[in-house]
Amino acid sequence: MAWAWPRILLGVALGGALLLEPGAARGADGGPAPLYQAEPPPFTPGIFPCTQCHQGPGDPTRRRLGFHDDVQDRFDHDAEHRWCLDCHDNADRDVLHLSSGERVPFTASYRLCGQCHGDKFRDWRVGVHGKRTGQWNGAKTYYLCVNCHDPHSPRFKPLRPDPRPQRPEEMGP
Amino acid sequence: MSAGGPGGGGLSRRQFLGRGLAVVAAAAASGCRVEELIGRSFRELSRDDVARVLARAARRQSARFGRPVTVDGAGPLPGVDFGYGLDLSRCIGCRRCVTACVKENNPSRRRPQIQWIKVLELDKARGVDLAHADAYYEADAVPRPGHFYMPVQCQQCRKPPCVKVCPVGATWKEPDGIVVVDYDWCIGCRCCMSACPYGARHFNWAEPDLPADELNPSTHYLGNRPRPKGVVEKCTFCIQRVRHGRYPACVEACPVGARKFGNLLDPESEIRQVMERKRVFVLKEDLGTQPQFYYFYAT
Hints:
The structure holds 2 protein chains of 2 kinds.
Chain A: H1 12-15, E1 18-19, E2 35-37, H2 69-74, E3 96-97, E4 103-104, H3 109-116, H4 118-125, E5 132-134, E6 140-142, H5 145-148
Parallel strand pairs in A: 2-6
Antiparallel strand pairs in A: 1-2, 3-4, 5-6
Chain B: H1 13-29, H2 34-37, H3 47-65, E1 70-72, E2 82-87, H4 96-105, E3 118-123, E4 147-152, H5 161-165, E5 171-173, E6 179-181, H6 191-195, E7 202-203, E8 218-220, E9 232-233, H7 239-242, H8 249-253, E10 259-263, H9 270-277, E11 279-281, E12 293-297
Parallel strand pairs in B: 1-8, 2-12
Antiparallel strand pairs in B: 2-10, 3-4, 5-6, 7-9, 11-12
């Protein structure tokens, strides 16, 4: 995907997590088609679990940190109004939290994204927004929001296009 | 056979049989089977004949490329009518779909170069104005400011003009909506190419240039089976994949998730969800071709 960070594996449990949402496409047998998470959420190598460093709650004051420079430098997600602890949970750094305070694991970050981007969230749940691979009539693999959009800088980054086709005059003998 | 046939023009029964055997021998010597000389189109074959024809095709392709090739003949799934959706507000013109399609479908690589998907670059100010479209854009990065992109491929029309004009019935629409070509029945007249308003059909002007190491050996008789010189080919929604439940290659390759595919008869399918929720249009609607390929704007 475009957001091509090196990734660490969170383990089989996360990679095979099952998403059961209403409105999912039907399988060949008429029942809801199972949806499987494509890849674990992307992390900078070696950085997860965050509790390796952040054991207890930290200073909740918004400020420039002395660490995580790469994230802070590229942070462009309503940066004027947001900072780390609006999404990352202060008490348990291995999870995120919603605006209600409810904690959600990184594998369910779409719930966090959906708080503001409800229209995209609704489209994503039924397969209109986002990407799926696998079977059109059966088991599908879905991509999390963060598999395509860097949560710290979500605009989709431009790509180098593949080579253009030959012009007819270039195809001569 | 000579004029008159058996019993006519002084041709004895013995001479007739003798000449018939000579034809058979000549056919065998030229690598061509009698059943091909007197053959029938693929869709007229009985179940047994289909099995034999598929086995023969696999044998020939394996010999042609020096590696094992499978030729599948899977038929349409009951209760399925395929529909395709393409989100013009997402497509960034990166041509990953083109690359994936070429890799999957075994078209000639160069001289001639055949690509079933053409990605058009259009001016945002002009909208969908095909007279000012550019398929040959080059850029360091896409999308380029002020432009949007519109991939065009076979629209799998419900009223396909290409099928209507084919003088020999070598192309037809399958019950699941896919318009296919029997490459062994096509006479290369190219009437279908001039009839298609979408430029979706392509002709093998020369022996296809497909290196054996780039071959996709998993083929369908009416799909990505390597083609001979002198026949027309086109997108089949990756018939070799979709008839086994898989998404087309272009859908899985798209990095922005702009491509949607599914069963139009299933209200929960992704394509039906698109049609329920989004602004959808078909290309050149005024021509009455009734495409099963839908463009939409998700935003």
